[in-house]
Specification:
about 260 residues, alpha/beta, Rossmann fold, seven-stranded mixed sheet, six-stranded mixed sheet, 6 helices, globular
Amino acid sequence: MPIKESWSPLDHAAPVVSSEVHVKSAQAHYREHLGPVYDWSLGDFEQASARAEAQLLAAGLGPGGGALAVDLGCGSGRQSVPLLRLGYRVLAIDTCSVLLQALKARALGLPLRTVEEDLRGFRRHAAEPAAAIVCMGDVLIHLESREHVRTLLGDAARSLAPDGKLILGFRDLTSIPSRFVLVRSDDARILTCVLDEEGQFVVVNDILHERHETGWTMSVSSYRKLRLSPEEARADAVSAGLEVTSSPAATASTLTSSGPRRSLR
């Protein structure tokens, strides 16, 4: 569980957390700490999903026409909802039940199927080639190693229709401009992120302050993100048999791959 402390505004000083914070898996971090406030951390959902839709369109994704799209690490639907609006049937994969419930509430009556599972197992649930596979919002760098990235890209290549698209979006953490990031704050909550470099990873420390009747509480939880450059992701996609059609330079790197160039089995 996340480390928690509480204090009253009248206290002379806030308590100091002296023990080290245990670094969790991404799945445990979301289940135990970030998942319940993740939707809130995005801000206005309609604005967030509109930005995601613009990214999908810029990557060359057109109307779905009822074809299958797979959203890997779908969260509460920032990409899934635009995919549904574009006319795709969506298979949405995530390990956080809280976020899947939020997505299902947003997609009532729409052709959505949710699966609570590690994204690496998505092929068990895709019964037909996909017109689009999206893996955005840093989900790719939640994987534990570069080898896991290569495996996922290979599985995506095998699962795409011949003219299908794989769209990847993630932040390049090979360099960190600032260790301290204020994610969002309001009168009841403050979410701050502190980044620590650790070899091929960055340790993400999410610090959540919440106001209650008796004062503020603080909870802290940490997990790792893989340091993956756009050039490395491009090379891995090409090795998987995918043709990378764009790699625009941006804070959140986006790679669009069409493929496969060759049959992978």
